[in-house]
Write the structure tokens for this entry.
Amino acid sequence: QGFEHPFSTMFGAMVYNFYPMLALLLVLVVIFSKRDFGPMARAERRAREEGKLLADDAQPMISEELTDVEAKEGITPRARNMIVPIGLMVLMMPVMLTYTGWGAAEAELPAAGFFEKAFYAIGQGSGSTAVLIAVLTSVLFSMLFYRAQGILRFREMIDLTLKGISGLMPLALLMMMAFAISTVCKELHTGQYVADITSSWLSPQLVPVLVFLISCFIAFPSGTSWGTFAIMMAIGVPMAQQLDANVYLDIAAVMGGG
């Protein structure tokens, strides 16, 4: 969106991310009070009394091949078998962002120190490449990790990997279309157009509110945060810039709504 330092801009917007903060506060209230309410309370009661993790009319975005996978018999469940691969994937993300953006950091900040270059490189790195390598690294490590413990044979791991890929295809297609819409919105300058036609009546103070509500409207039915970010960042940020609204608050509204 034309930011010179996108990574630091995102961090600057996080202090305005009120909705996620309230959601985390609600989690703490539920944990310490041991009382839930609303749809989540009904879901917990159903799981506890009927053993159903999903409602009868639920329509998960992932295929039944994944939701119907049963735990392997004779294997002792260990938290490390989930925590270590996921932790590795999370760790690889900033590493790969730094790696893919290091060339830009070297060119722009040749005399800077390592940490300053690394911070700049993360903001200039390729997110898609970082995600791909982080996921592949985690999957390959998981295969070796589980094989070393005798949990799965290589044939089983390949079958489960292919099943996971096929099961997530609907979500991948949804993401692909969301990013396509984002690119179209950028090329057509949709944000600037919306700002032009609303500038006569829309107050700059209301822009983050409107962006938040639209982001919620997109995120809840579609079930994808990143798809919402892709679409609304391309529209909401140019709107805020043109209407002289608080851009940091607007970015936080997109992230919170998504």
Remarks:
- Residues 21 and 189 are 32 Å apart (CA to CA).
- The chain has a mean pLDDT of 84.
- The longest helix spans residues 80-108.
